[in-house]
């Protein structure tokens, strides 16, 4: 992470997303790339996720990400998921995923392009993504937008998950992003 | 407003739009979000509008904005609206709206996306919109453009409402933007 | 012109285009907006054009630009126009126009949008266009691109008109842009 | 090359691409424009390519680039090309090309637009392209994207050619980009 451009902000935003996802029971997964060589996924983040998937390809799709995402969630979670998020993730024809990570122009890019190719709706959280160089990072965002990804920010995700000031998690979320 | 990036310019442009809208009898509405908690809509701006709508959802649509916009205007106003604006707003198949406000990436974004989803033609006046951070603001503009909104500036709206130098409000408008 | 952002560069590029257009016999027209009030079109540029059109609307289309552009050119000119430019401008189903000027977000924008609406292929030469503020200028370019205009630069036009190093006007054009 | 904006980085990235292409047996070609007047193609780069094509038009297509690209490769090379790259380049309906060079807004742009017109999938490696001015270069990229080119960076190409950490050329490629 230290080599990543604006690493602190990227990490902070990923933490906000994972924390709120856990609180609102939005299923989340971590992927780690050849951890025995380049190190494990950040433990604080992994602990907030439902699971961590190991991979050797740069894209997480050839080694099973889509199966993981589209498998039926345990009944307990599905029931407790807020209604408007249930609709988006389970009833619609096009499943959606919120994605963030490093490096934006390698693993994240290749994964997102594969997901778009599988007809998923892909939200890329730009301020929770990073590359070593700003130019590679921004080129990844432009390319993802051109291929149909929805580029969003951490706060957009937070306020779209909440929907309004009366959401029971509103105060919790507001404290997170302060 | 003070926390908003370039707040002075945002406010100044919103004031120009509301003032000219009133002068040219283009119907305009203010929305205020949970005013008892985060304060009322700016009184100077509200006074220029036909009405102010309160809301608790971030998007203004679930609580009735579309009904407000597509309801028949009183006969007096409809007759006095300049012809080319009448056509745009009432006769065409796709009703249009000019939208501005704060925060660009939360309430304004969610409202605009809902309006686009309702098949309205949405003009977002970028220099009359703001967020606390420039990055969130610009990400909102990019996302809106990608979803079909027309990104415009205050001066574009002014000169497209006027159409030409012979418009009776030309001098009034020119003084406004100086 | 002095109030325009980067006025010198805008003027220099417009001059290059008009000079080469005249040399290569590409028909060109100037438009001037209410000249008795805001001054005549720059005489050096006007002298290079086939004609100058006066207008009072911000868009040049309601007062006859399209008729001017699509009227048959005099036989003498049509014959001497380079073959590949003849094809583009006269035989194809979609007539094309190269456009530049000030202010980018008012007269030029409204004219270009009207031309696009008329199914013309519109090339906007960005470095030969200007507005008083950079933000309005760039917003005009983004909006034009979103509406289907082809954004080009002066050098792009020059080298696409020439096609190759063996063009008889190659040396003349190279001296122009130096 | 010295006159090109960020010439060192452009050259370094072109060298990485040509070196890896040779190692992974991806066929590559150089084009040189009127070499007797403006000098030969850089010898170090040319030596890494399968061949060098001379041209006098700014676009390389009228003088035979597409024939060169779509001609059957010698059997030896075709067999040794990595499987996933074989698929992309030979079996799919739409042949693909990775393109880089100078000047981005003249020869490269015109060539790429012609290739897109021929229904090829065109990848433009932005950080291995240059123009004398940054504005012309960036305008070329925007125009190429608007016309359907895929804008990529050198590292994107490297990691998409490799596909994963287990590729036999992974270590070689990593040393190249360090």
TrEMBL record, chains A, B, C, D:
Task: Give the top-rank taxon of the lineage listed in the UniProt record for this protein.
Answer: Bacteria
Q: Where is the Isochorismatase-like domain?
A: 3-155
- State the Gene3D superfamilies in the record: Isochorismatase-like (3.40.50.850)
Kindly give the PANTHER family that the UniProt entry links to this protein.
HYDROLASE, ISOCHORISMATASE DOMAIN-CONTAINING PROTEIN 2
Give the protein's recorded name: Isochorismatase family protein
Organism annotation: Limnobacter thiooxidans
């Amino acid at each position: 992470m230290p080599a990543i451009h604006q690493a602190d902000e990227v990490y902070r935003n990923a933490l906000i997303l994972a924390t709120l996802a856990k609180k609102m029971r939005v299923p989340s997964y971590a992927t780690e790339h050849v951890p025995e060589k380049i190190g494990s996924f950040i433990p604080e983040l992994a602990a907030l996720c439902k699971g961590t998937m190991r991979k050797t390809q740069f894209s997480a799709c050839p080694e099973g990400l889509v199966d993981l995402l589209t498998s039926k969630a345990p009944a307990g979670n599905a029931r407790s998921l807020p209604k408007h998020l249930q609709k988006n993730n389970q009833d619609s024809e096009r499943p959606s995923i919120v994605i963030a990570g490093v490096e934006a122009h390698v693993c994240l890019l290749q994964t997102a392009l594969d997901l778009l190719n599988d007809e998923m709706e892909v939200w890329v959280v730009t301020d929770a993504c990073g590359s070593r160089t700003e130019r590679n990072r921004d080129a990844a965002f432009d390319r993802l937008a051109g291929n149909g990804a929805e580029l969003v920010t951490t706060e957009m995700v937070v306020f779209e998950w909440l929907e309004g000031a009366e959401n029971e998690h509103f105060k919790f979320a507001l404290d997170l992003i302060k």
